[in-house]
């Protein structure tokens, strides 16, 4: 079975500086891949290469078996799409800066792209309702909140039913509730069989949403795999963290002796909370690179 | 080239111009000023329709040039152009749609000049033909500036001096002989002369100057487009 996205030894130089260093990875159809890394790691560069906006210095990239760059036009159209509609684009993209026409209403923005993609008007209503913007359809984009703009940008990306969705920092700068709404929309796309390639520096977002994550630092993929598995791989110091009713914190190793101590605390009803201290993606990233992801 | 894409961009641009007062005002202001001057100031020593021709010459340089450059620069600045190109609208389709719309807006303003001047028949056709030729050259120049510029500020700083030079040359050449000698190589001066003096004023050098101006602007436009394409394929904002 052909992978939805396939990268082979992608390398890119910018002004003599290596931005991407022999990146290779595969994304299966219907998967969500999260590309995590700090600002300047090369995430947007990789998306631009995949979407044919930028020519890589070396290496090859394929979208549903079609080589990008050489066939940029093909990778953007005539693929049938996840919607099954002939002429639908292969890819849809949500950029980090939205790129919406501010003097146009939400509806007019989608109508413009519906005409370009030759999508029926009924689809505009369907998608605006799905992202919760139907009531605000006649509001000019300049008057929409950031969260609404992000949702509209998402709606435009999925308007024509693409097979592969590129999301560049989809919830960047959004409040938790709006971010959760965007996450819900992304999950709906996955359920519809769409492959999602998203970049983020939000570890929680990646952990919640992604089937696989790739940690990118300095143009190199330093770790790859399902988020839970990555965390397990770096679970060197297995410890238990107990918060006692008196407010005291107790850290215990994963040992038989510690089990006795825990049982003792339980018998005396002294435990408020108990947690294992397996690392999260943030901790893994720090261990691998010596820097925080939001630096 | 997809006609559907061109028409979509064309109608999008039309709607946008109607809502963008800074662009729209340029297509309205000059004909209105010309009408006011034509009907309120009538010095006997000036030739007939002096203000119509003078403002029309300024108009066919300024309005399409600043309009086209501002529109493209805004699309680049706000990343809407990138999204359009990602949606498989080719640069040629985008330029055809946008240019077509601004050309039409320019010609609508030209018709207002013609109405103010009370032109009809052959005179009307000749006037509109000259305005169309001037608008076309300015449009390509504006497109070159828009493609070159990264944002609206840089587009304005480039387009203002260019349009000042070309739009004021016809007027300045009336007061200064040296300026007049230089101005005859500018399309705005030649078109102004053809409008004011009629087709009988056309000489061999007129055609050469107009063709030369158009070719020069077109070559600059091609160079700028090529440079932009090479640049965007190489560089990236990570």
Describe the protein in words.
The complex is a heterodimer of chains A (295) and B (238). Chain A has helices at 43-50, 72-76, 106-117, 121-130, 146-158, 176-191, 203-209, 227-233, 256-267, 281-289; strands spanning 5-14, 17-27, 32-36, 58-63, 66-67, 91-94, 164-168, 195-200, 212-217, 220-225, 239-244, 249-253, 271-276. By secondary structure, chain A is α/β, with parallel strands linked by helices. In chain A, strands 6-7-8-3-9-10 form a six-stranded mixed β-sheet, sandwiched between helices. Chain A has a four-stranded antiparallel β-sheet with strand order 2-1-4-5. In chain A, helix 3 packs across helix 4 and helix 5 runs parallel beside helix 6. The interface between A and B is medium-sized, with 37 and 26 residues.
Question: Key features?
Answer:
heterodimer; A: 295 residues; alpha/beta; 6-stranded mixed beta sheet; 4-stranded antiparallel beta sheet; 10 helices; globular; B: 238 residues; mainly alpha
